[in-house]
Amino acid sequence: MRNPLASAARIVRFTAVMYKPHYLLYGVLWVLALEGTASLVTQPESAWRPAGATLVRIVVVAFVLLYLRMVDEQKDLEYDRVHNPDRPLVTGAVSAVELRVAMGLIALGAIAGSLALSVGSGVMIAVALAYGLVLWGLEWLFATVRTNIMVNLFVTYPVQLLVTGYVVVSAIDTGEVRAQWQAAAIAGVFAGAFLQFEFARKTSRERRPDELLYSNALGAKGSTAASLLCAVAAVLCDIALVRPWEYSSLLAWLPVPLLLMPAFGALKFLRGDRADYPPLPAVVFILALYLTLIGQALTLP
Predict the structure, then answer these.
(1) pTM assigned to the model
(2) 169 near 121, Cβ under 8 Å?
(3) Cα-based torsion angle of the residue sequence 18, 22, 24, 26 in order, rounded to the nearest 10 degrees
(4) Which residues cross the membrane (predicted)?
């Protein structure tokens, strides 16, 4: 391994290339929307406001997302050599050893920061970090996990649920959320929102057997339908938990018209002639939904 300063500089460059600002934005909005909505549906009589513990959770999740990006860079190395030859690990801009050292430091910092909030917070984030390594091992051991995208989704998505669980458990421990079944059910909103984007970004009208696309397994129309159904599921779950008919504010109903965004993306793809699904409507939907959820948590009680 190179000297520490040179390695640190390479990790910084890796982060600048592979951890774009929109990843950080997503992490911040995810934590705020998740904590705020869990507070709204478990203690609607009191207004939610971000606290110091919220900031700690944002920092932890932001670094955990970077940790998982580093895991992906290593476990997808063979695939990237063919399909993404400009990736830093492929080109040698960063080494596997440097990534692993950075991952170790991130893990230590995330666990320590979370333990400062509560034991439950530390345990949950440690489990999420460990599961990232389990995924790496599963893909290395089993070809089906590497090559079958539906199996891969089934195996890899739980890491998102574990991070969601970390935020909810930590917020319960620090008093922002009550320990009620609604706090767990909130995961359905965020699973649906993320998966609508996940299906959309890996959908093409062209069959490409050498690439991991959901449209290879489900067909272009099937993958498009899956994305739309996930968006609808997210909104229906939010409505069931928030119960917007109990509020006079139209903000409570705003998630419903937001469905026009993924619907527009699907229509544009199915009626157009471009090969790949347009990602922008899916991105706008998830960000707009999270901003709406934050607004609901701040203003509805």
Answers:
(1) 0.93
(2) yes
(3) -130
(4) 23-41, 47-68, 89-117, 123-142, 149-169, 181-197, 218-241, 247-267, 279-298
**Could you write out the DSSP letters of every residue in 112-174?**
HHHHTT-HHHHHHHHHHHHHHHHHHHHHHH-HHHHH-HHHHHHHHTHHHHHHHHHHHHHHHHT
For the segment 107-131, what is each residue's pLDDT rounded down to a tens digit?
Answer: 999 999 999 999 999 999 999 999 9
Q: Tell me: pLDDT of 237 over 70.
A: yes
Instruction: Describe the chain by its helix, strand, coil percentages, rounded to 5.
Output: 80, 0, 20
Whether 100 contacts 7, CB under 8 Å: no
- Hey, what are 38's tokens? 């869990």
Chain centre distance of CA 267: 25
Cα–Cα distance measured from residue 297 to residue 217, given in angstroms and rounded to the nearest whole number: 38
125 closest CA partner among 166, 71, 80, 67: 166
Cα–Cα distance measured from residue 164 to residue 125, given in angstroms and rounded to the nearest whole number = 10
Radius of gyration of the chain (CA): 20
For residues 31-39, give the mean pLDDT: 98
Q: How many CB atoms lie within 10 A of CB 75?
A: 21
Predicted confidence at residue 232, as pLDDT, reads 98
- What are 92's two structure tokens? 């040698």
Distance CA 37, CA 296 (A): 8
Average pLDDT of the chain? Answer: 93
> Would the pLDDT of 1 be above 50?
no
